[in-house]
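Full entry
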Amino acid sequence: MDGTTRARPLPEMDGKTGVWRTSVAGDPFPYESLAPPLPRPTTREWVQFAVLLVGTIVSTATLPQGGLAFAFTLLGILFCHEMGHYLVARHYRVRASLPYFLPFPLSPLGTFGAVIFLRQRIRTRRVLFDVGIAGPLAGIPPTLVAVWWGLAHSPVSDRAVSEGLSGAHFGMSLLLSFATHLLHPELQGGEVIRLHPVAIAGWAGLFVTSLNLIPIGQLDGGHILYGILGAKARKVSFVLAAALAVAGFWFPGWWVLLAFLLVTRLKHPSTDDEHVPLGRARVLLGVLTLLFFLLTFVPHPFDLS
């Protein structure tokens, strides 16, 4: 050893991508704190946010037996989910759009959910993991509150009434089935629960969370799995894509999701630095979050007949 202290290499910005890189290949330090400050959302972005928000309120509130209780509960869940992504992205100075709600009156839920757009490559797998998992972690608590409160206020009936909106019958996940038996132990064969609008919104929140946690492609689960496994996660994505193709024979909606995943790129893009360690705590949190997907997954989500 020569006794001199080597300084950590200074970061350099790629002029084309705006991504901060270190001058030494393989340097383990991501330099998130040295990224330039992000600009505030523009007036145009706020107008787009407001227009889509109002449209989604209208498309969800006008559903039969839905109303404002359903609309605002569901939008609150979606907002929490997307703001989780947005705030963590801002924390790491990753350029991201505002959350945009997607109204869709033809859907039994009145919406396609909500999205944000990341406008740059992710610097490290750790940043990717944190941004990806923040949405589900922010959305799960209000979803569970809605399910619990909604089921507690849902009456039991011995008539063959619909459990959902406009004659739609919604499937039961393991978690929802457990909550139903816990809150309605008196439920007997032939009896059904007339779901309160807040309970329907809770069901929708679980469904959206489950979809996003599928560990494939650009979904939240895909980000989480890539953060844990790196490039090895791509093999899992292709296996699950084949499983979705088969599942489509039971519920054609899975073919729609698969088509969306193919359009948005099934193969997860790499990060700028694949070598920054994730840490045991993040790996454990990621595994537990992906297990939540198993508790909320519904092979046949709803039947409109």
About this structure: Residues 1-31, 160-166 have pLDDT under 50 and may be disordered.
